[in-house]
From TrEMBL:
GO terms of molecular function: sodium-independent organic anion transmembrane transporter activity
Location(s), subcellular: Membrane
Classification via Pfam families: OATP
Source organism, top-level taxon: Eukaryota
Classification via SUPFAM superfamilies: MFS general substrate transporter (SSF103473)
UniProt name for this protein: Major facilitator superfamily (MFS) profile domain-containing protein
GO-annotated cellular components: basolateral plasma membrane
Signal sequence coordinates: none
InterPro entries the UniProt entry points to: MFS_dom (IPR020846), MFS_trans_sf (IPR036259), OATP (IPR004156)
């Protein structure tokens, strides 16, 4: 029985448990990977998404109410799974659930960026002050020819599909992040010394805040790149970033996040259900507790904290700036 426990607590994916990778089998390394994840989660969900909303509204003719639904879809997706996983996830293999959630977020980023790759080129209006050569090979929105009008009508029908993809992508991002922010924090708590729990959890939340700030900065810089840089020769583009018709490359941040999430998911998947030394830590905690119910009280308090955080985030959905401030205060 002891041999089976030792084997179960070795680091590795499936039957592959190399001795050279056992250095990663510690709570410090797990917190490191979790910090990388929370950085990119904040980078995309609370940083890049909030920056690119004006570009999406202009590119796909979205109203403010529709763009608000896109932003809120992340929290709605998380809310569906949050309380359920926070309770029942304690009985499952936590690192596997966390890794699966991260891979789901990578897929969500891919879904969110699909409209750029399956859609048509951006049709903009050429004005005299913005045109370099007075002509353009794209269909102008002011053009009244029958061929152009039919094309524009067909394009607007596709916008409904793109809008649905944005919502689905955001919901996948919200659902995928749930395991890390619920059972992920619990995994840290039960596999480290009690005096280090707050420090490690603080590091993960700090990484999330840094990711948000980075997402605003980097996402804003991506908007200085033309949206169809992957389809056109931007050297001959008759628009500048100061032109009212300009739309920035809103999708680049999501393409960067896809491999980033995948690269973080696999190290997380390699961790065992419980790290080596789990029993010793639990014995030490029981000896430091005032009574035998201390562990249960701590678990209940953690669950209540998750519910309170969810309610606060839901109340601040209409104002992304307040969500950003809330994460920093944590």
């Amino acid at each position: 029985m002891v041999a089976n426990q030792n084997e179960d607590r070795r680091y590795g994916c499936g039957p592959i448990k190399l001795s050279c990778t056992q250095r990663l089998n510690s709570i410090r390394w797990h917190v490191f990977w979790q910090c990388i994840f929370t950085f990119f989660d904040g980078f995309i969900v609370s940083g890049v998404v909030n920056v690119i909303i004006p570009a999406l509204e202009k590119r796909y003719e979205l109203s403010s109410s529709k763009s608000a639904i896109i932003v809120s879809a992340n929290d709605f997706g998380a809310f569906v799974l949050l309380i359920f996983l926070g309770y029942f996830g304690e009985r499952r293999h936590k690192p596997k659930l966390m890794g699966a959630g991260i891979l789901l977020m990578a897929f969500g980023c891919l879904v969110f960026s699909l409209p750029q790759f399956i859609g048509e080129k951006y049709a903009y209006t050429i004005s005299e002050h913005s045109s370099k050569n007075g002509s353009c090979n794209l269909c102008s929105k002011r053009n009244t020819t029958s061929s152009c009008s039919s094309d524009v009508g067909e394009i607007k029908e596709y916008y409904k599909v793109y809008y649905a993809l944005f919502i689905v992508g955001q919901m996948l991002l919200g659902i995928g992040a749930v395991p890390m922010f619920t059972i992920g924090l619990s995994y840290i708590d039960e596999n480290c010394k009690q005096k280090l729990t707050s420090f490690y959890i603080g590091l993960t939340l700090c990484s999330d805040a840094v990711g948000v700030a980075t997402g605003y900065i980097v996402g804003g810089s991506f908007l200085n790149v033309f949206v169809d840089v992957d389809k056109l020769d931007v050297a001959n583009l008759p628009l500048t970033s100061s032109d009212p018709q300009w739309v920035g490359a809103w999708w680049i941040g999501f393409i960067i996040a896809v491999p980033a999430f995948i690269l973080v998911a696999f190290p997380i998947l390699g961790y065992p259900r419980r790290l080596p030394g789990y029993e010793e830590l639990q014995k030490q905690r029981k000896s430091e507790a005032y009574d035998n119910d201390a562990e249960e009280i701590t678990a209940q308090a953690s669950f209540v904290l998750v519910v309170v955080i969810t309610i606060c985030k839901a109340n601040m959905v209409p104002n992304p700036v307040h969500v950003f401030d809330f994460k920093i205060l944590m």
